[in-house]
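request received
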Amino acid sequence: MGQLQITVSASVTLDGGAVSNSGTVTLPCTNYTHQTRDFVDGFEQVAASNIDSGYLVVVNTGEESLFVQLASTGPDYIVFEVVAGGHGVYPMTIDDGAAFSIGAVNVRSATSGGCRGIIITAQV
Amino acid sequence: MADLTSTLTITGVVNGKKILFTHEFVDEDVYDAGMHTQEGSGQRLLTDGASAGAITFAQNSPAYLLATNKDTYGVSKLVMGIGVNIILPPGGLICTTATQGMALSSSTDTDFVLDDLNTLTPDTVPGLPHGRAAIMVTFNNVT
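response:
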């Protein structure tokens, strides 16, 4: 058991005007995982259904996009992209308009050239 | 042109283990950006221009999205016009990036050509107090 805080802060200044946003989510956390892996152009499972009510963080340390696939316990999938050098923070409270319970999380790179990513899961 | 800087920090203690992780992402050549705060439900942030009261951008789909729920009690729902809904509990957030399209809601395992995000509408969740969604989007020379 424990507690985790995930903070994202972003800003950009255009034509002298700043646009910014930030947020901090505080989670009661029963399990935390951190893995660094190399991905190629086939989906590999990085998390299972026990993340269903938690958070997923993907950091792309490579030079091509990573694709993050949230697979439901049914037939549906939701996919996001984490661009080269970027990061993504995803709550598992997500759906495609119908009941969507996370069955697995899978990640792949855009091409067979491969890409390294850091996968962090926070299980509530 | 300008650079977007996005900083991720994870801190805490879980099962006796101290956690500290940081990462900075710099997205170059940002040429448009916007911020929208919506309590409860209401205006669309992005649209193809067809909806009255929408906040519009010239580009098809953002390259960066950071949405947070600023409310400490209520719940926000982000309705992406591509079949993806995201529930943000009090303080919740989502951050994602894109080069072509923003997300995909698909019934196939291998199709990952993402869809353009043309509409993004903050909404309420029936039976729960209203949240306050703060949504930041940026566009770069790829999208």
